[in-house]
Write a structure and sequence with these properties.
The chain is mainly beta. The chain is 7% helix and 43% strand.
């Protein structure tokens, strides 16, 4: 009974994360370019070519400038919901144009300066994207579907499920995990079917090295699994409150966004350094 209550509470918190991330509070917009602030973070990544940090937000993609202040990449201030770095200067994303609607799958080959629409424009909003084994795996929140594509245009539809985030095994293209209100759901057939979610209840997952799967819960506790999610160990609590995004860059290299900053760890999540300040969006 206690267990069920804990799961229900965690699920409510995860739902709150999703609602907060998607809320449109566009009253205080553009012109204050000199005092740029970042909030509503949806994705994080490092470009392998130069290790530059990229932060996908409700108001565009940002990178730290020489003074560690957020600088808009390109000129798009669209809402970037799903976001993943695939390879050098090559990013995939999804979300909403400032004019409304859904972007489907978009791609940049110049580190986010410009974007090309690939498919499903107006139809799908991918809240989670992962690139592995030459394939884009996406959770299409508009249709509650796990979908995959190799060329960015032709899609295979997988399981229907209510998920918050996904992660693909770096060793096995068939092994896909998804965070749900019940816990972590598992697929061994590339996302065509999933088991029921199993505790712990986590908000976000990231899996870059086979023995280093990371998950962060709604309270900001960072957990690590060395056996593909069968067992989990709490490593630390990321500073800054409620989590907004998580990306594992390597076995010991982790990025996490919380309410007050983007944090980086190079020791497997034991300690974190703030890379970018974030304007808290806790009440939105």
């Amino acid at each position: 009974m206690n267990k069920r209550h804990t799961a229900a509470t965690a699920a409510a918190l995860v739902l709150a994360l999703t609602v907060a991330a998607c809320s449109s509070e566009d009253g205080a917009d553009s012109s204050a370019a000199s005092a740029t602030t970042v909030s509503h973070i949806h994705g994080l990544g490092l470009d392998p070519s130069d290790q530059r940090l990229y932060v996908a937000t409700h108001e565009g993609v940002y990178t730290p400038d020489a003074n560690s202040e957020p600088k808009l990449v390109g000129d798009s201030k669209d809402d970037f919901m799903g976001f993943t770095v695939a390879e050098d200067k090559t990013f995939y994303a999804s979300g909403h144009p400032t004019s409304g609607g859904n972007k489907g799958l978009i791609k940049s080959t110049d580190a986010g300066k410009t974007w090309t629409s690939l498919s499903l424009s107006g139809e799908s909003d991918f809240h989670a994207l992962d690139h592995a084994h030459g394939t884009v795996y996406g959770y299409d929140a508009t249709n509650a579907l796990l979908r995959t594509t190799k060329d960015g245009t032709t899609w295979k539809d997988g399981a229907s499920l209510e998920a918050f985030d996904i992660a693909v095994s770096p060793n096995d293209p068939g092994l896909v995990l998804a965070t749900t209100a019940e816990g972590v759901a598992r697929s061994t057939d590339g996302g065509r079917t999933f088991t029921k979610g199993k505790e712990p209840v986590l908000a976000f997952l990231s899996w870059k090295a086979a023995n280093a799967l990371y998950g962060i819960d709604p309270a900001g506790a960072l957990n690590r699994s060395g056996d593909g999610g069968a067992t989990w160990t709490k490593v630390s609590t990321v500073p800054g409150g409620r989590p907004q995004a998580l990306t594992a860059v390597g076995a010991e290299h982790v990025l996490a966004a919380t309410q007050d900053g983007v944090y980086e760890s190079k020791d497997g999540g034991r300690t974190f350094t703030k890379r970018l300040a974030v304007e808290s969006s806790g009440g939105h």
